[in-house]
Every structure is written in structure tokens, then in C-alpha cells.
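Lecture 7 notes: from sequence to structure.

We start with a single chain of 236 residues. Read the sequence below before looking at the structure.
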Amino acid sequence: MHEGHRNRMMEKAADDVKAFNDHELLEIVLFRAIPRKNTNPLAHELISAFGSLEGVFEASMEQLLGVEGIGRSTAAYIRTVGEIIHRIPVSHPERPKVFNVQTFSDYLRTQYHGETVEYVELYCLDSKYHIGFKKRFTSENGGHAFVSSEEVSRTVVAQKAYGLVVVHNHPKAPPVPSEEDDGFTHRVAMLCALSGILFFDHIIVGGEGETYSYFLSGKMNEIRTEAERVVGKRRL
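Now the structure, written as C-alpha cells:
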């Protein structure tokens, strides 16, 4: 079944390779790395994780291995293609490389423009505030998005994150934090305090493109302080 799909994809490439979406191009690249598996879902996962095609091919071995379904051989193949691309002039990635609340919020407005599905996204940062990895979560039916505390913990540990930024959207509403949003932010703050990870911000994107930053509002500092106080008492 996969062979027939691959043949059709290659025929399409022969006719007009420019007609492909980014994930389709990556899917074809992965044909050679993973010969007997449907590579379409993995192509979507990689672009979601690293923000763009360029982000995928700039990712380190360690970061690639943090994506489910990527083994050492496939990661090495992607890194090899990435090195070839690195030796050719390429455009700058759309996603900011270094986290800054204002520029990152501007980026999110573009990313979520016209979006009708609710998502929760985890962005892992290194000690220089570089955005190295993203993982996206949603519900199966596109309704209320949810990510468990266990999944947050697994993601930041697997990526050896220094810091974390959480993003989620309100597709049909303003970016006003709900009680549930506040509760989730508190739980993530507790996890980060326990793990020694800096929780930078939780940004909400509204249906009209407005954004709300827990950091800029001052609430993030209060939440982090409370989480550190509770964690400190537990360790006594």
C-alpha cells in the first residue's frame, strides 16, 4: 500500500515539485531513511516540533531523537541533509530563534490567524533562550485541547530544557485566562519548580489575533513565586 502511495508522490514530484506542501517534501525525503513505513505522520510531527523545514534540518541529533518515531539512523540521515542545506544559502526561519515575549507574540498572531482548532504547545528553551523544540497537543475532534502534567514533564526532561514557554489558543474567544487556564499554569509552574526549569511564560492567542501574556500581566511572577514556596516547604 505504501509503495503505491510513494510511486504516486514521485510521479507528482516529476510533474511539479513546487506544488508540494512542506510536509510532503519532508515526507519524500524520509522515504529513503524509512523504506517500509508511512512517513506522512512523522513529517507532520517533525515540522510541528521544529517550526519549519529549516528548523527540522537545523535540529541536533539529541533534539531529533526526542521526537517519537525517530531513531539514530533516521536522525543521522536528517542531519546529513541538513548539513547539505547548511552549505547552501537559505532563508531565515519564520519562527524567532531567541525567545522574546513581544516578537514571539507577533509570530504567534501570524501562526494562529484563522485557526479554528484549539491547541496547546510546549516550547523548550536552552540557557541562551533559544527556542529549540516545540510539541503540539490537541483533542482528537479538534475541541478542547489538553496536555497532562505527565506529558509536560516527559517533554521537558527528554529535551533537557532550561526553560519552558506554554502557548494555547482560544479560537472563538478573546485571550482572557479562564480559571482552568490559571489552574493549568499553576500545575506547570509546580512541575518546573520541582525540576529546576524556568517557566518563562504562558501565552494565550485569541480568535481575533490578540494575545495575553502571563509574564507581561505580572501573574507569572506571582505563580512562580508561589510554586517555589510550596516546593521549598516540601523539601524541608
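The chain has a mean pLDDT of 89. Keep this in mind for problem set 3.
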